[in-house]
Amino acid sequence: MVSEYCRVGEGMLDKSIIAANICDQKIKIDLFKTIGSTSEYLKGVSPGAMPHICIAEQQTKGQGRLGRSWHSPFAQNIYLSCRYAFQKDLSQLAGLSLAVAIAVIDALKSFCSLEKLMVKWPNDIICQDKKLGGILIDVQAEANGACSAIIGVGINVNMLEDERHQITQDWVSFRKILGEQVDRNKICISLINHLLSCLEQFANNGFHRFIDAWANLDYLVGREVALKTPEGEMIGTAQGIDGLGNLLLELSGGAVRAFSSGDTSIIKNA
Ligand code: BTN
């Protein structure tokens, strides 16, 4: 009998297949069987003009937002990071994490027709009201006013049910939704192509070209939301985003306030 583990292992990531299908050939790709964290690895490489992609079959110290860990079992999901140099000051990267979330959704949609995919501000990828993927962005200032972004993307693809106890958030995977194994090489290719095109657009035009696309994908808009911030929990109705990608919340009393960071959850009505 073929065990579930073996079936998962059949479709390993393949650097030559991925590299051959990337539109922009001027990139560097590293593929590891196991690594601490693809993003931590890229933080340590020397900065270069060429985008640098790191993918792994497994992460032993996968990092999530707000200091959480990202469960990263072997050969089941996608753990992909991209180091990208911008000729911009750090302050000009506002909205980047939202633009990347839009690119990830476009990549997943173009790959197969999932039920409606949405983004929970700032960048959780949501399907069937559960988390399908997450994005973590770190930025580093470089010389001469330039900077590099290290963009980490984790997508739950073929994750096995017995991994569920390791994850605190309500999650879903491609495999659960579609009822079948999915080719992770194809998802990687689509992700890299959409990500590079998004980053080029962001480098040239900034965030404003992404605002309309965001409005169509906004999971929170019109809902009662709790936002955990360093100054405490804020409760309000989500009113979309402003031109910098900040979350707009209408607080009790009617004032609308913009928030640049925090952890959001929907307040479910009884
Ligand atoms: C989140 O908490 O929603 C963000 C999760 C980001 C996970 C990815 S997996 C690839 C990259 N490497 C990491 O250690 N984290 C990111």
* Class derived from helix and strand content: alpha+beta
Give the neighbour order of strands across the main sheet. Answer: 1-2-3-7-6-5-4
Helix content: 25-40%
Q: Which outline best applies?
A: globular
Bound molecules: biotin
Give me the strand/helix succession: HHEHEEHEEEEHHHEEEEE
End-to-end distance: 47 Å
Number of helices: 7
> Using DSSP, what is the number of strands?
12
Q: Per DSSP, what share of the residues sits in E-state strands of 2 or more residues?
A: 25-35%
Instruction: Indicate the radius of gyration in whole angstroms.
Output: 18 Å
Largest sheet: 7 strands, mixed
What's the rounded overall pLDDT mean?
91
**Low confidence ranges:** 1-9
